Amino acid sequence: MTAIVLFDGECNFCDSSVQFIIKRDPDGFFQFAALQSEIGEELKKKHQIPDQLDSIIVIENNTVYDSSDAALFITKHLNGLWKCFYIVKLIPKSLRNSVYKIIAKNRYNWFGKKDFCVIPSPDIRNRFL
């Protein structure tokens, strides 16, 4: 069983987050696709994900997680103490998502944008759709 992480392929913070996940997911539970890619667009359409949703998205089976729920779903499946962050799920979703939206809204200003896509190394290339 795997889950797909849809991420903003232009965002430095999002790219760093993908690299972070890969390092802590040696079993390859997560696969990745940029929201702007052809497969990203197909998955958004298939799962009726609105274009204006400005969030990391996780798709597991036919369940879609976005915003703080997606981030917490990811931490729950990482190796090490990162699983402990799942306790944040106890905080009301509206509050979690408010913090998430501040980061999402400012991610380009704070972390910058990519001018080009980085080609994954051969050892992880199969994890990108």
Automatic annotation (TrEMBL):
Signal sequence residues: none
Coiled coil stretches, renumbered: none
Database matches in InterPro entries: DCC1-like (IPR007263), DCC_oxidoreductase (IPR052927)
Single GO term (MF): protein-disulfide reductase activity
Pfam families to which the protein is assigned, alphabetical: DCC1-like (PF04134)
Entry protein name: Putative DCC family thiol-disulfide oxidoreductase YuxK
Highest classification ranks of the organism: Bacteria, Bacillati, Bacillota, Bacilli, Bacillales
